[in-house]
Amino acid sequence: MLLIEKIQADVQKLPEHLQREVLDLVEFLLAKSTQDAERQDELVWSNAVMAYTMQRMDEDEGDDAPVYTLDDLKKRY
């Protein structure tokens, strides 16, 4: 018996109010799965942007790159 068939057979044995709870759980897991995938996509993009930015900063730095100190600040917070 396939897993989905086992789940269906077992859920059908439950009273209706418990079947609703199973449905709520399944919908929660689906929503969580979607959010996890979106977070993973955001993390991949964030890491790529950070790596690109750091690479550009390294390329732009040279002997003529300005060095700033606290004395250069107009306002301190």
Task: Describe the protein.
- 73% of the residues lie in helices and 0% in strands.
- It has 2 helices and no strands.
- It has helices spanning 3-13, 16-60.
- The protein is elongated, with a radius of gyration of 27 Å.
- The model has no long low-confidence stretch (mean pLDDT 86).
Summarize the structure.
The protein has two helices and no strands. The chain has helices spanning 3-13, 16-60. The longest helix has 45 residues, at 16-60.
What features would you highlight for this structure?
77 residues; mainly alpha
Q: What's the N-to-C terminus distance? A: 67 Å
The number of distinct β-strands equals 0
**Main beta sheet: strand number and arrangement?**
none
pLDDT below 50 for ≥5 consecutive residues: which ranges? none
* Helical/strand content category: mainly alpha
From the spread of the alpha carbons, the general shape counts as elongated
Counting copies of identical and different chains, the oligomeric state is single chain
List the helices and strands and how they pair.
Blueprint: H1 3-13, H2 16-60
